[in-house]
UniProtKB/TrEMBL annotation:
Organism of derivation: Tsukamurella soli
Pfam families for the chain: AIRS, AIRS_C
Similarity section: Belongs to the HypE family.
Gene from which the chain derives: hypE_1
Protein name (Swiss-Prot/TrEMBL): Hydrogenase expression/formation protein HypE
Occurrences of domain PurM-like C-terminal (ranges): 187-332
Length: 361
């Protein structure tokens, strides 16, 4: 703190300020760069893509759809650094399997095989690694995929703590002939659907990490969604786009689709299913439920005449019983997502800048 000569009133020294959202012109990597929001996009657009040059693919989504001979495959990779590694409803093991399975499913693919790579800190108990591996095996069996290859590395543990485990999973799935699901396909008039309660995973991890209680135990919604997507596709509906709203939550996913397609989106906030425990947690901590991560939910953009039958199919599946119509794609405010509030106003549902809850996946 410094003081003015005239009044002796303390003036804060800005050099020592700390902000929950990191400054976007930082010359170094900060936690926000891993949040799946605007800072992640800037890192990709301004550093990785120019560095990759001609080697970079035209589209760099959660899954790439590639032509291999007469077939098309979806290919995806993801890394998991969640802390704590075990939380209500799951652990880093089933999270890693489900996360990659879901990324493949969002391209309309049938997931087939996964690789599993482990980075283990020296000193990590073998019993911890065994629990994680067991969870991965059970999750892979539930999703109907095989774990076919992998890698293991050990790194120094300079903190002297019990050791961390980081997991990378890469997956391959088969895309049926004629399947065309992608964010650029959204059109004005399309319905915006969500498969159930949002914000549950982020709050589950946060409550476990910080020892917070919200009147009930909040369990993660981590689950494979390929079966739900198959049921939706089986209706014959025109499903334009699918996203599993993980980092950055539903807000990031819908903004990505709006930007890619050029449409606006108008949501009805009261129609978005947010459980009371998530509302309480977000109210206490100043978080927006739309920006809190999910690991077992999807958002879908569906042709207007197909919304009802897709909703019926979703609600008939265990992972979609809480499915809701939450809004429409509109011609107004192109590339922007807005929501009608309970007070009769409208608010912008913006892409998060960084990460509200670091290391939730």
């Amino acid at each position: 703190m410094t003081e003015t000569a005239a009044s002796s009133v303390p003036i804060p020294d800005a050099a020592n300020w700390a902000c929950p959202l990191p400054l976007r012109d930082s010359p170094n990597i900060v936690m926000g760069h891993g949040g799946g929001g605007a800072m992640t996009a800037e890192l990709i657009d301004l550093l990785f893509l120019p560095a990759f040059g001609a080697a970079a693919a035209a589209e760099m989504g959660d899954s790439a759809v590639l032509a291999i001979g007469d077939s098309r495959i979806a290919f995806s990779t993801d890394s998991f650094v969640v802390k704590p590694m075990f939380f209500p409803g799951g652990c880093i093991g089933d999270l890693a399997v489900n996360g990659t399975v879901n990324d493949l499913a969002m391209a309309g693919a049938t997931p087939l095989v996964l690789s599993t790579a482990f980075i283990l800190q020296e000193g990590t108990p073998l019993s911890v690694i065994e629990r994680i591996a067991d969870a991965m095996g059970r999750a892979a069996e539930a999703a109907g995929v095989k774990l076919v290859t992998g890698d293991t590395k050990v790194i120094d543990n300079t903190s002297g703590g019990p050791g961390d485990v980081y997991v990378n999973t890469t997956g391959i799935g088969l895309v049926p002939d004629g399947m065309d699901i992608g964010p650029a396909r959204a059109r004005v008039g399309d319905a915006v659907l969500v498969s159930g309660d949002i914000g549950v995973h982020g709050v589950a991890v946060l409550s476990c990490r910080e020892g917070l209680e919200f009147g009930t135990t909040v369990a993660s919604d981590t689950a494979p969604l390929n079966g739900l997507v198959e049921a939706m596709i089986a209706t014959g509906a025109d499903i334009r786009a699918l996203r599993d709203p993980t980092r950055g939550g539903m807000a990031a996913s819908l903004n990505e689709i709006a930007k890619a397609s050029g449409v606006g989106m108008h949501l009805v906030e009261a129609d978005v299913p947010v459980p009371q425990s998530v509302k309480d947690a977000c109210g206490l901590l100043g978080l927006d439920p739309f920006q809190v991560a999910n690991e077992g939910k999807l958002v879908a953009i569906v042709a207007p005449g197909d919304a009802d039958r897709v909703l019926d199919a979703m609600r008939a599946h265990p992972q979609g019983v809480g499915a809701r119509l939450i809004g429409r794609c509109v011609s107004d405010h192109p590339t922007m997502v807005v929501a009608a509030t309970g007070l009769g106003g409208t608010r912008v549902v913006d892409m998060p800048i960084g990460e509200q809850l670091p290391r939730i996946c």
